[in-house]
Amino acid sequence: MLQNDSVAVKFRNVTLSKNNRPLVSNLNFTINQGEALILLGRSGSGKTTTMKLINHLFTPTEGEILFNGKSTAQWDEIELRRKIGYVIQETGLFPHFTVEKNVGLVPSLEGWKPKQIKTRVYELLNLVKLPPEQFAGRYPHELSGGQRQRVGVARALAADPPVLLMDEPFGALDPITRLELQKEFKRLQQDLGKTVVFVTHDIQEAFVLASRIGLMYGGEMVFLGTPDEFIQSSHPEATAFMECIKPVV
Ligand SMILES: Nc1ncnc2c1ncn2[C@@H]1O[C@H](COP(=O)(O)OP(=O)(O)OP(=O)(O)O)[C@@H](O)[C@H]1O
Ligand SMILES: [Mg+2]
Prior knowledge:
alpha/beta
């Protein structure tokens, strides 16, 4: 079926059940090329599950997900995942690889020349504020949690995929580094026109990054709209999140 070129991903009546219990239900939404869609929701609301449906780590029980107009069930999985950078919630670095090797992994699988890989890795480590002369040769266990997360972000960006899935990539960072990286990342995302799906339960982070916010609650997407529309929303879960940014008196 023909689909508008500006649509990167489309969820059509998607439900995923495990042991007869739905983890997410009736998901119907599109992600446009070049937008930053933030999946916001409390713990257990279905954010990570929604993300894993996009790169076919999960297969829907009902409905389908179209990636570039083709059902994820019909994509060759390797080809699909090469188009989708993924920062997982627990970073997922290879413990026996140095930072340099972890970040350069996908480019090397894609057959880039060693010199080209090194240049790219150094560029990305600078971007995520890990000076390569200090960090390239270290192993993941020699880093702090926040530094590991930044290596995970660099790794997902390495082969320049058009779509990025980022599952709470800045969760372990102090608020100052976090805001710096959020701003840097937003600039990069807009300059490069990347399509980003970004999971967070931090409403402030959602406002910094979002072109649209999808609010998950109990496995459903109960709101989808711009940050301005989110502020106006009368959905109780949206107002509960808005309460979080009011000063406590
Ligand atoms: N493989 C699985 N099998 C069965 N249940 C699962 C599986 N993965 C997740 N769940 C359940 O599905 C629900 C949604 O989980 P999910 O990981 O999507 O939440 P989340 O919104 O990402 O939460 P958090 O903010 O804590 O990361 C939870 O109730 C979880 O226990
Ligand atoms: Mg999660």
